[in-house]
Amino acid sequence: MIEIRDLHKSFGRLEVLKGIDLRVTQGEVVCVIGPSGSGKSTLLRCINLLEVPSSGHVVIGDVEVTDPDVDIDAIRRRIGMVFQQFNLFPHLTVTENVTIGQRRVLRRDKAEAKRVAVANLERVGLSDKAAAYPAQLSGGQQQRAAIARALAMGPELMLFDEPTSSLDPEIVGEVLAVMRGLAQDGMTMIVVTHEMSFAREVADRVVFIDDGVILEEGVAEQVIGSPTHERTRRFLTRVLHPAAAELTDLP
């Protein structure tokens, strides 16, 4: 479904992506892990052209996203993205947040947009908050509303950019539960995450990125449980065993 070939992205003299090659098949869940600043979020943003790659190719289905003549709006309609911050409109109710994109972009009428919104709010467990405003929701509820908004557009692919990093630890689970459900339903997903237990349980494949390159990829049990690259081992020690990492002063 997705093929990324020799993808590069620079911001001025700073080269963030240094030749990424990645293929994702339909229905596959790929978790991307790595240290902060390694290029994970930039990779996601290049897939839906929130950032324009400096060079290389991104192909989704039979459409080359990096073709200068591509219809960017048409590409973005095929891709749902959930960010670290929820980006909900504070002056709109949850239902209005989920319907606004449908009406303005997909040109659905009010009744159809509301029907789709109701179905997706139920899907993420927020039916009882349909009339609430974002300020009346917990962080986990706001993120679930953001997921419902993305799903309402009928995407073929979902991109998640550390969707739980802004949440209190006790409510992370409710967002991950929704993502598990999407995976079980066969949604193609690329997830940038530090939630290693989620990656172990849900990912078909885990990709470790460091300094703009993929250093290691494979099934979750191999990459997280028995990494072959020394840099991957150091990173996972820091994430999974921070006290031990401090004692050994790992970089």
**Strand share of the residues?**
15-25%
Let me know the largest β-sheet.
Answer: 6 strands, mixed
Distance between the termini: 36 Å
Given the structure, what is the number of helices? Answer: 10
Compressed to H and E, one letter per element, the order equals EEEHEEHEHHHEHEHEEHHH
Mean of pLDDT: 91
Structural class category = alpha/beta
- Rg from C-alpha positions? 19 Å
Strand arrangement, major sheet: 6-7-8-3-9-10
Overall geometry comes to globular
> How many strands?
10
Name the poorly predicted regions: none
The residue fraction in helices comes out at 25-40%
How would you characterize the overall build of this protein?
The protein is an alpha/beta fold. It contains ten helices and ten strands. It has helices spanning 40-47, 72-78, 94-105, 110-123, 139-151, 172-184, 196-202, 220-225, 230-240, 242-248; strands at residues 2-11, 14-24, 29-33, 55-60, 63-64, 79-82, 157-161, 188-192, 205-210, 213-218. A hairpin with a 2-residue loop joins strand 1 (2-11) and strand 2 (14-24). It starts with a strand and ends with a helix.
Summarize this, please?
This protein is an alpha/beta fold. The protein has helices at 40-47, 72-78, 94-105, 110-123, 139-151, 172-184, 196-202, 220-225, 230-240, 242-248; strands at residues 2-11, 14-24, 29-33, 55-60, 63-64, 79-82, 157-161, 188-192, 205-210, 213-218.
